[in-house]
Fold:
Amino acid sequence: MLKIAILTGSTRPKRVNIQVAKWVLEEARKRDDAEYTLIDIKDINLPLLDEDLPAGYGQYNQPHTRAWADIIRPFDGYVLVTPEYNRSTSAALKNALDYLYAEWNNKAVGFVGYGSAQGVRAVQHLRQIVGELQMADVREAVQLSVFTDFTDNGSIFKPAPMHLESLGTMLTQLNRWTSALKSLRG
Ligand SMILES: Cc1cc2nc3c(=O)[nH]c(=O)nc-3n(C[C@H](O)[C@H](O)[C@H](O)COP(=O)(O)O)c2cc1C
Structure:
C-alpha cells in the first residue's frame, strides 16, 4: 500500500490550514488507493534551520532534524497544504522542506493552496522549490479562495463542491506518480 502524507503549511494560532488539511485527509481516506496520514508541522515545532551543512550532505546533527527525517522518510508521496503569504508559501513550510533532502527525493507531490488569490502564487513557488528537492509535482492542484470557500471573514472552511473534483484529480495523478517512482527508488 502506498503511503501518502498530508502536510500542513501554517503554524499561526488562528490558522485555517488545519481545517483544509483535515478536509483533504477526510476526502482522501474515502479512496482505497493509498494510506493517508496527516502531519501537522505545528506539532513538529522545528526551529528556524540550524544545521551546519545543507541537507544535501545528509549529515543531520540536530536531534530535531533526525526526528523530522524519521517522520518524513517512510512516505512515498506528499500533499502540501499551503496558505499564500506575500505571494509565496509560508516560511514555516519552506523551513520544514529545507531541513531535509534525501527523504524528499524521487517522490511525488501534490498541492492544495488557498488565499485571497486562491494560493496560486504559493503553489507556483512551491513547484520551483520541490524541483530542487528532486520531487515530481503533479499538474492538478486544488486552489481555494478565502472569499468563496471560507465564511465568517475567512475563518470557517466551507469548500465549494467543485473542489472535490479537482482534489480527486490531483490525488489520482499523485497516486500514479507515487506508484511509478516507488520502483525508481528501488
Ligand atoms: C503574512 C500574511 C501575508 C499574506 N499575503 C497574502 C498574499 O500575498 N496573497 C494572498 O492571496 N493572501 C495573503 N494572505 C492571506 C492568507 O492567505 C489568509 O489569511 C489565509 O487564511 C492564511 O492561512 P492560515 O490562516 O492557515 O495561516 C496573507 C496572510 C498573512 C498572514
